[in-house]
Amino acid sequence: MRKPETIERLYLDFDGFFASVEQQCDKRLRGRPVGVVPFVGTDRTAVIACSKEAKAYGVKNVMRIKDAKALCPDLILVEQKPDLYRRAHSALLCEIETVIPIDTAKSIDELTCILDDRGRRDPEGLSEQIKSTIEKNIGEFITCSIGFAANRQLAKMACKAGKDASKKAGQYGNGLAIWHPHMMPEPLFQVKLEDVPGVGHSMKMRLAHSQVITTEQLYNLQPKHMRKIWRSVNGERLWMALHGYDIQAMPQKRGMYGHARVLPPESRSINGAYEIARLLLVKAGRRLRREEYYASGLWLWMAIDGGSWFRTIKMPTVNDEQAIMTAHTALWECARRELPRRTTIFRVGVTLMDLSEANARQLDIFNNDDAIRQKWERANGAMDALNSKYSSTIVHMGEWKPPAGGHVGGKISYVRIPSAEDFY
Questions:
Q1: Which of 28, 140, 390, 423 sits most deeply, having the most CB atoms within 10 A of its CB?
Q2: Residues 245 and 282 in one domain
């Protein structure tokens, strides 16, 4: 495994992305505490994202509106505009590409680049050029923090360290940290254990059982020991990353397609939740077909008064809407039998799982659905083609009435970059 002798990676994280896009687009919001919410008109939901002014009061992402307003009474609530954030993401990437090629967009607000000779020699100059290009061509209210290091994982941690340093200096974001290999590992030891990529809450508890509570202690473990703690090769891969080796991300295999949504107050009944879940599943099915997959399982989940309810159902290996909706209806019939009629449902999610690639689909020998499947697949193909041609849902099965807040399937996502097709 190669160990770089100089910095080779850049990691960029936009600061308070969703709220800063709102401030850039609406002059009335600039310099004021802003909280982005799923929909306005109720306090029975959460602040999805907040501006640096709101964070100065202690408001955090994914905080109940009631709690956020207690910390910041002047908080301005703005309804989410997912398609605006998608377009801002695309515009920002185009501007950055004029300065340096982008290797991977890790999420809607994070990306990584491989440095060329100029970037290795003058990371400060490269950082300044990226930031000035964004300010000049997009606007001054969307800022970013940047980290440089020998590999992507260290660059990500450096980026977070740069953002934290800017907070200590009295500003939010616009940070910069450069971790040259000859400086390591001292900067790494200042990072909190939970800020190491791959160390979530459960892994932090597992490490604590092994008497590992600091990043320095983690760094000093042996690779085989980390593999044992992680119970997979990922522990050993993280050891290589922390020690500055050129470790590449392993290819990810698609495991499921799903959507979830917080329900507006008028849709928090069983009937209202069913209609929104149906639309979410239509969107998931479209994504399944676009990427040429089939599914043989469907999962339905709901957050209800006092807990949650979920069930799964097996399907033939299908991707057409008729088969998927047949399974969906069966799950809701089960929900109606088991849940009290006046159950309040706050959130609903649907997931197509047990995937097969289109060229690897296997028919059920006890359910020869080939003729019917082909008929429905042709019908779905024709509908998908028309909707794609006109960039709108103009042909659909059943009613098409998106709920308050719109954009079924195109909500704010911290882990997936929405496509244009998610918004029709």
A1: 423
A2: no
